[in-house]
Specification:
Aminopeptidase, nine-stranded mixed β-sheet, four-stranded antiparallel β-sheet, binds glyoxylic acid, binds manganese (II) ion
Length: 399
């Protein structure tokens, strides 16, 4: 029987990023594939039957695959330069919870599946929770198949090269019917769990969030021969757009807006860019306010682009409404975890996508600094163990 910490230690060298720090485990790259293989071995070692469905979601079954099963799990892919816990903590805790239940001599009266969802972060193809969106039909299949990574490879091609049949990718009612209830354990990504209180919390809601691509086009030119007065430099407009994003969001209580990625084209030190692409992540509890926020940012972007002699486009890449987890399931979980506080989160999760279709809930484990999507993300060993124990209690109580 392995603890969560032992399980996480066994993958601590997979996908380390020597340049960014932390881990870069993008979906269907070698590190993520190695982690998927690790998951198969760990599941088989526990006597679980592993299958990969037509969307690349892995299911490890304790008991026969059946309708209405209890399903728990998370993801193994990461953001670029991410931490060790966002995703793997939920998978490792699910495996450890199975060990705990087996050690208790527990016989599940209905089947339990541990799942791994691909491309939860959207780090490679741009749309977060791609696996659960495909499974549920929350994303148009053709749109998903045509998503491209930075090399220009489509999701269809990459999925095909990794054993999936692109013709069968998309909504999967048979797999969906197998999810009676879904519970995802996840590292907390704020400071909602104080240092001295309980180590676990129950999730209440996920902030509505989306991603937009902003492209600013200007005149590519020579850095040495183009007079300052003669430029239409999209990088200068992009810099002002980044500031406008912050200022627009700062005026809106509870809003968060981030430009975390920006690509100059062609991208040379002595080249005035011809285009700059920026990706905007914006979040707010009220979807109507998010829409206003995006409109405000777009207007500001048009103004600064025009002043610089540039043009700008804004395209929505994905959007997820605010999610409130199933009240009945969350109440049952709160009853199984006495003293656990109830916390909202600003982070997206597969549980949030699934919540639109099946009763779903989340359990969060303390992250003392609240830092996440960063190498400094941290969960203490004793808190990880408390999380696995809490998950085991929840699974036993729900089964
Ligand atoms: C995923 O972690 C997200 O909130 O973007
Ligand atoms: Mn994440
Ligand atoms: Mn995550």
């Amino acid at each position: 029987m392995e603890t969560v910490n032992q399980l996480l230690s066994s993958i601590q060298d997979v996908g380390r990023d020597a340049v960014r720090g932390g881990y870069s485990r993008a979906v269907y790259t070698t590190p993520e594939l190695d982690l998927r293989q690790w998951f198969v071995e760990q599941a088989q070692h526990r006597g679980l039957d592993v299958e990969t469905d037509r969307n690349g979601i892995m299911w490890a079954w304790w008991g026969k695959p059946q309708e209405g099963a209890l399903v728990t799990g998370s993801h193994l892919d990461s953001v670029p330069g991410g931490g060790a816990f966002d995703g793997p903590l939920g998978v490792a805790s699910a495996l450890a919870a199975v060990d705990i239940l087996k050690a208790r001599g527990f016989q599940p009266p209905r089947s339990l599946a541990v799942t791994v969802f691909p491309e939860e972060e959207g780090s490679r193809f741009g749309v977060a929770c791609l696996g659960s969106r495909l499974l549920t039909g929350a994303i148009d299949t053709d749109k998903a198949l045509n998503l491209r990574d930075i090399n220009g490879d489509t999701f269809a091609d990459v999925a095909g090269a990794n054993g999936l049949d692109p013709r069968h990718i998309g909504p999967d009612p048979v797999a969906m019917a197998r999810i009676g209830d879904f519970v995802e354990l996840h590292v907390e990504q704020g400071r909602g769990l104080g240092q001295d209180g309980p180590a676990v919390a129950v999730g209440s809601s996920i902030l509505g969030h989306g991603r937009w691509k902003i492209s600013v086009s200007g005149q590519g030119n020579h850095a040495g021969t183009t007079l300052m007065a003669d430029r239409a430099d999209p990088m200068v407009a992009a810099a002002q757009i980044v500031l406008a994003v912050r200022e627009t969001a700062a005026r809106q209580p509870d809003a968060r807006a981030t430009v975390g990625r920006l690509t100059p084209v062609p991208g040379g030190t002595n080249v005035i860019a011809s285009r700059v692409d920026l990706w905007l992540d914006a979040r707010h509890p009220d979807d109507a306010v998010t829409a206003q926020l995006i409109e405000g940012i777009y207007r500001a972007a048009q103004d600064v682009a025009a002043a610089e002699g540039c043009t700008v486009t804004l395209t929505e890449e994905s959007y997820s409404d605010t999610v409130h987890f199933d009240a009945g399931l969350s109440r049952r979980i709160t009853g199984l975890l006495p003293g656990a506080p109830v916390l909202a989160t600003g982070a997206g999760h597969d549980a949030g996508v699934l919540a639109g279709y099946v009763p779903s809930a989340m359990v969060f484990v303390r992250n003392p600094s609240g830092i996440s999507h960063s190498p400094e993300e941290y969960v203490a060993d004793e808190d990880a163990s408390a999380g696995a124990l809490a998950l085991a209690d929840v699974l036993e109580g729900l089964l």
